[in-house]
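One thing: could you explain this record?
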Amino acid sequence: MIDTSHKISKTIYYFDKNEKWLVFNQYSNSEFKAYNAGDIFLNSKWHLINDSIFNNGIDNKILSLSDTLFEFTNRTNGRTILKAYPDSLIPIAFRKIQ
């Protein structure tokens, strides 16, 4: 899923069925690189709570979820909308990461 709300960068969020998630950034025409949150620890696992909360270290209230869109909100970042893209639009290095 890709967050396209930022004009200067693209962010890929990778989620899998084994509750793993990863984040990658691309600035301008540079390569995608693993997101570096500095001294903030990002949990690499996600899980659902009562089918309405997506937790990846922070409780995120699910607002909308479909095959193509994931919208959630949390107390730190506000509202986030992620759009699902086919593998053909995701850089080869980040397709179906194991």
